[in-house]
Amino acid sequence: VERSRGLGDVYKRQDAALSLSASEVLANGMTATATLDVLDGENQGSASLAGDFGTLTIGSIDADGAFQAGDVGGAVADTTESTSSTASTVYGVHYSGTVAGLTVSAQVNANTGAEGTATIAKSTQMSATYEVNGLTVGYAYASADVTDANTASHNGVHEGQSAIGASYAMGDLVVS
User: Fold this and answer.
1) CA dihedral 58, 86, 144, 111 (to 10 degrees)
2) Is the pLDDT of residue 164 over 80?
3) What is the structure's pLDDT at 56?
């Protein structure tokens, strides 16, 4: 807080932010990571555990992360909170793991946004992709709107939406 003197005491509010992050490699080879962002009016954080099984994240996550992982052809735009935002975050649980070219992702979004506002609908998402010799095929599904703010101008994942796609990489050229 900044204080100025004059005819009366006037206090001017300054924006503030504090970010904390910690990572530890555990004895069994897994890595535990935690982040906490204390922002002016918005607090968010997450904790993750990564190992041979994949990565499990709890806390502030990408609103449509599991869906976008399976949208190989890029048919559905990222979910945004508004036309000026590039990404939407929510509180939830996200898992992703890969074995022999098969990647699966699943997540459950809570009923509130990462800022604690009740603007995000509960959503369950899942996806699977398989990659072999430059060919990747994928499937993604979301049970509900990833954000209640979705309109035609905001794009993003809508209720009961599925995406199926394929892409083939030939050097720097990728055909989807």
Assistant:
1) 50
2) yes
3) 97
Q: Are 81 and 149 in contact (CB under 8 A)?
A: yes
What is the Cα–Cα distance from 36 to 39, expressed in whole angstroms?
A: 10
| CA dihedral for 77, 79, 83, 85, sign (positive or negative) | negative
Two tokens, residue 119? 């603007």
Q: How far is CA 113 from the centre of its chain?
A: 11
Q: Which of 134, 155, 10 is nearest to 68 (CA)?
A: 155
The Cα–Cα gap between 138 and 68 comes to: 10
Tens digit of pLDDT for each residue in 75-93? 887 777 665 566 778 889 9
Q: How long is the chain?
A: 176
pLDDT digit string, tens, across residues 85-120: 667 788 899 999 999 999 999 999 886 555 555 455
The three-class DSSP label of residue 66 is helix
CB neighbour class for 107 (10 Å; exposed up to 12, middle 13-18, buried from 19) = buried
Nearest residue to 156 (alpha-carbon basis) of 121, 129, 130, 108: 121
Give the predicted TM-score (pTM) of the model: 0.77
